[in-house]
Write a structure and sequence with these properties.
This protein folds into two domains: 3-83 and 194-202, Glutaredoxin (3-Layer(aba) Sandwich); 90-192, Glutathione S-transferase Yfyf (Class Pi), Chain A, domain 2 (Up-down Bundle), CATH 1.20.1050. The protein has a four-stranded mixed β-sheet, with helices on one face. It contains seven helices and four strands, in the order βαβββαααααα. By secondary structure, it is of the alpha+beta class. Bound molecules: glutathione (GSH).
Length: 208
């Protein structure tokens, strides 16, 4: 049975398509379109995820949510071992940190920024703290990017798949203008054939 990805247009599920292309796993996309007015996911996603969010994958009768869990699952069960540093190594610890930093830390100021930007002047008291947090998280990524051009070791790992979205958001939001390594990192991942193939299949994506 082919692995299914529930993909919401213009969303973080784009990186799951990229991972599958990098490994060369056959997959099928179920496309879900954001509401043109609210930008929220359509109600049909509630049938597959109680929160109505994407990504969700279906594989061998299993339904799996949460990008980082999906990345771990695909790497372990679908031939992505080369994208995971050896367990017990220092690189594996760094890998786990970055894998979870993406959703667990970096997304908080990104989403706060999105929501408070809709408050107009009402959001003004929150702006300095949110901007400071955006900059410190993106600066942390800039500082820790390795000379190899990746976040862990000498090659692409699942952590880069997860970090691609906050890195793209940094560029898109104008926070990477003074962060040359992060800017070059985003350009390099965008140039990968697997990334381009995923983009073609996933449809328009504002961060590429
Ligand atoms: N932490 C979750 C986040 C899932 C999430 O919030 N996805 C967004 C797309 S970027 C979504 O489905 N939003 C639509 C909505 O909330 O209506 C993950 O990484 O999978």
């Amino acid at each position: 049975m082919t692995l299914i990805v529930h993909h919401l247009n213009n969303s973080r599920s784009q990186r799951i398509l990229w991972l599958l292309e990098e490994i060369g796993v056959p997959y099928e996309i179920r496309h879900h379109q954001r509401d043109a007015v609210t930008n929220l996911a359509p109600p049909e996603l509630l049938a597959i995820h109680p929160l109505g969010k994407s990504p969700v994958i279906e594989d061998e009768g299993k339904i799996i949510y949460e990008s980082a869990a999906i990345v771990e699952y695909i790497c372990e069960c679908h031939g992505g071992a080369h994208l995971v540093p050896a367990r017990g190594s220092d690189d594996h610890i760094r890998y786990l940190e970055w894998l979870h930093f993406a959703e667990g830390s970096a997304m908080t100021p990104i989403l706060l920024n999105l929501y408070t930007s809709r408050l107009g002047e009402g959001g003004a008291p929150l702006r300095p703290r949110i901007e400071q947090q955006l900059n410190s998280h993106f600066q942390f990524m800039e500082d820790r990017l390795l000379d190899s051009g990746y976040f862990v070791g000498d090659g692409l790992t699942g952590a880069d798949i997860m970090l691609s979205f906050p890195a793209e958001a940094a560029v898109k939001m104008g926070y990477a203008a003074d962060k040359p390594k992060l800017t070059a990192y985003v350009a390099a991942i965008h140039a990968r054939p697997a990334y381009q193939a995923a983009l073609e299949k996933g449809g328009p994506y504002a961060y590429a």
